[in-house]
Design a protein that fits this description.
single chain; 20% strand
């Protein structure tokens, strides 16, 4: 088997991905498909860290409710909203852990906020030890602090665990100059530099996350994770989606 370009990856998925075509909650079929894709990567010998957003339950930044039980979120302050979003990430992480373990993958959820009945506390050395033992590590609870998105949390965890690559799984095939869902003529970028992303204000990740990647020379691949097999292609170096690096093409 040829040597892979990446030894350890950090996969970032939004909570909305887990909801599938539903507006809220978790679609078991989608979760099962994503879990199989993660297994294909682990089976190739890569170490996998994962960060999942919580937008399918609650979106603290915009104060939009993520489900009927949270429909009266108007007037909620930013800090409380962000903590509710962190709880959403924990729910998604535990659900995804269950799907991965159903496929025989040893998986650990490490949370930045204390919830010991469901997850271990996030400790960098513990996360590294789990990865070295071949376990999938799901980092939940964001950074544990309000005002930071799960994009930022994903990059931070990626840097901490020594990931070679950040994979951002989305619903579209890369980064475009406009929304490809509403504009069929939107142009896809196959390769970008961090400076171009910041200058053009492209929606790859938030500015803090992109800056962290730029400062630490940690490349990002944005790709459509809903298509079967795309995660393995992105993780093993195939040209797919959009690659964001510090080097011009």
């Amino acid at each position: 088997m040829a040597e892979l370009p990446n030894r350890r990856i950090l996969l970032k998925m939004s909570g909305e991905i887990l909801a599938g075509t539903q507006r809220y909650g978790i679609d078991p079929m989608v979760v099962s498909n994503l879990a199989r894709q993660v297994k294909s990567v682990v089976d190739r010998g890569l170490q996998v860290g994962i960060v999942i957003g919580g937008g399918n339950f609650f979106r603290g930044l915009s104060m939009e409710a993520g489900g009927p039980a949270l429909s009266n979120a108007e007037g909620l302050d930013r800090v409380s909203g962000d903590y509710l979003g962190m709880l959403g990430t924990i729910m998604n992480s535990v659900a995804f852990q269950n799907a991965l373990e159903g496929l025989g993958l040893d998986t650990r959820v490490l949370s930045a906020i204390s919830i010991i009945q469901l997850a271990e506390p996030y400790i960098r050395r513990r996360a590294l030890r789990h990865l070295e033992k071949g376990r999938v590590v799901i980092c939940a609870g964001g950074t544990g602090n309000p005002y930071f998105t799960t994009d930022t949390a994903a990059v931070l965890r990626g840097i901490e665990i020594g990931a070679n690559l950040i994979l951002k799984g989305t619903k579209v095939d890369g980064v475009f100059d406009d929304d490809p869902v509403t504009n069929p003529q939107a142009k896809k970028f196959h390769r970008l530099t961090f400076e171009e992303v910041i200058e053009k204000k492209l929606r790859v990740m938030n500015l803090t996350a992109v800056t962290l990647c730029m400062e630490n020379q940690l490349p990002i691949v944005v790709f459509n994770i809903q298509q079967e097999g795309n995660l393995l292609k992105a993780a093993t170096g195939d040209q797919i989606g959009t690659l964001v690096t510090g080097e011009a093409s």
